[in-house]
């Protein structure tokens, strides 16, 4: 096993020779790892695996919280899970944080910025890069465009912002979500939504996020959807949807040629707290995409309703995270 071996000159040829007689595992914190020469040497001879921070289920294991098959019928178990979910959203899922405390979030963030981005790409205008990274993380669960970012930052060239954003994404600090459209040209031109790899990291970098539980919930749902795509459903494609009237669907899950699911995320604990605009968006989006399922992930409300004659399911976040194959 080799960790961060990309920092050693000519490492690709060494690994290529080594793998002829050995099983080799290479780990690194930047997606540049399998670009360039190594991709050429190992074409068809490697498996690329993206490891995300702990899932909520894994987080519960670190807290020694075990649940049997009927745990959802126990009010005490549900209370424990809800409390743990609040902590998980606040602290995130980096293993180092659970072991050494939240101070590690500062260290993780600094190491990624200094080593995996600034050092790796030899960026000279380091303050511009730092400001952009902080701004993007602060914008988690929001739309961004490179042109509009030039008005908010010291970087006035949208091409530079696009390049820096790609570096930040390659270092797995953020992920960009494209808007769904059947027209590829519109899809590429539309604003992207940005999500942070970890809510604990987002809270540490962008203090305002802790006061917006709805956006933090949406970030958690995105990372979980990404996890399910990477680990279990490689054919999935993830998008968001928005029409000319501003009606929006937080997540569109496309599976090959069909729309598997439309998902809204809302910080609601009661039916009356669900914004009717969420359901209006379902009406418009369902006519265009004809999804198999429509789901609203809530904080603590469970139920159903009908939209255009189809059932919309409301599921609490804590339940959706722990029952990935039921919904």
How does this structure look, described?
The protein is α/β, with parallel strands linked by helices. Among the domains are: 2-41, no CATH class; 56-100, no CATH class; 212-327, Trna Endonuclease, Chain: A, domain 1 (3-Layer(aba) Sandwich), CATH 3.40.1350. Helix content is 45%, strand content 17%. The chain has helices at 11-18, 37-41, 56-62, 75-91, 95-100, 103-121, 126-138, 146-152, 158-170, 184-189, 199-205, 213-231, 276-289, 317-322, and strands at residues 2-3, 26-27, 142-144, 174-177, 192-196, 236-242, 248-255, 258-265, 293-298, 303-307, 310-316. The longest helix is centred in the middle third of the chain and has 19 residues, at 103-121. It starts with a strand and ends in a 5-residue tail after the last helix. The model has no long low-confidence stretch (mean pLDDT 91).
From the structure above, extract its key features:
Trna Endonuclease, Chain: A, domain 1; alpha/beta; 327 residues; 17% strand; six-stranded mixed beta sheet; three-stranded antiparallel beta sheet; globular
- What's the CATH C level of the domain at 212-327? Alpha Beta
| Helix content bin | 40-55%
CATH-derived topology of the domain at 212-327 = Trna Endonuclease, Chain: A, domain 1
What is the mean predicted local confidence, pLDDT? Answer: 91
Shape: globular
Major sheet: size, sense and barrel closure? 6 strands, mixed
Widest sheet, order of strands = 6-7-8-9-11-10
What is the tally of helical segments? Answer: 14
Give the end-to-end Cα distance, rounded to a whole number of Å.
37 Å
Low-confidence stretches are none
Radius of gyration computed on alpha carbons: 21 Å
Count the E strands.
11
Strand share of the residues? Answer: 15-25%
Q: Under the CATH scheme, which architecture of the domain at 212-327 would be assigned? A: 3-Layer(aba) Sandwich
Q: Helix and strand string, N-terminal first? A: EHEHHHHHHEHHEHEHHEEEHEEEH
The chain-level structural class is alpha/beta
């Amino acid at each position: 096993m080799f960790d961060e071996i990309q920092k050693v000159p000519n490492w690709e040829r060494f690994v290529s020779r080594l793998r002829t007689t050995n099983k080799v595992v290479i780990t690194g914190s930047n997606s540049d790892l399998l670009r360039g020469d190594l991709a050429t040497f190992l074409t068809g001879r490697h498996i690329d695996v993206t490891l995300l921070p702990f899932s909520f289920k894994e987080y519960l294991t670190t807290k020694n919280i075990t649940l049997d098959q009927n745990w959802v019928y126990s009010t005490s178990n549900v209370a424990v899970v809800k409390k743990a979910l609040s902590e998980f959203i606040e602290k995130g899922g980096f293993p180092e944080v659970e072991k050494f405390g939240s101070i590690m979030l500062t260290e993780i963030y600094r190491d990624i910025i200094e080593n995996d981005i600034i050092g790796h790409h030899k960026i000279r205008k380091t303050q511009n890069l730092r400001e952009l990274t902080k701004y993007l993380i602060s914008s988690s669960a929001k739309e961004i465009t490179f042109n509009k970012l030039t008005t908010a930052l010291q970087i006035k060239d949208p091409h530079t912002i696009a390049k820096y954003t790609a570096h930040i994404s390659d270092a797995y600090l953020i992920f960009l979500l494209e808007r769904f459209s059947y027209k590829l040209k519109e899809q590429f031109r539309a604003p992207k939504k940005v999500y942070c790899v970890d809510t604990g990291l987002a809270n540490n970098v962008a203090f305002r996020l802790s006061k917006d539980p709805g956006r933090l919930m949406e970030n958690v749902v995105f990372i979980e959807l990404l996890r399910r795509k990477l680990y279990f459903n490689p054919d999935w494609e993830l998008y968001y949807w928005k029409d000319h009237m501003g009606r929006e669907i937080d997540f569109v899950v496309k599976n090959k040629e069909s729309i598997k699911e439309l998902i809204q995320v809302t910080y609601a604990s009661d039916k009356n707290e669900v914004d009717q605009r969420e359901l209006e968006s379902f009406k418009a989006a369902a006519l265009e995409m004809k999804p198999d399922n429509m789901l609203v992930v809530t904080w603590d409300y469970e139920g159903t309703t009908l939209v255009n004659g189809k059932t919309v399911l409301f599921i609490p976040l804590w339940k959706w995270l722990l029952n990935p194959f039921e919904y």
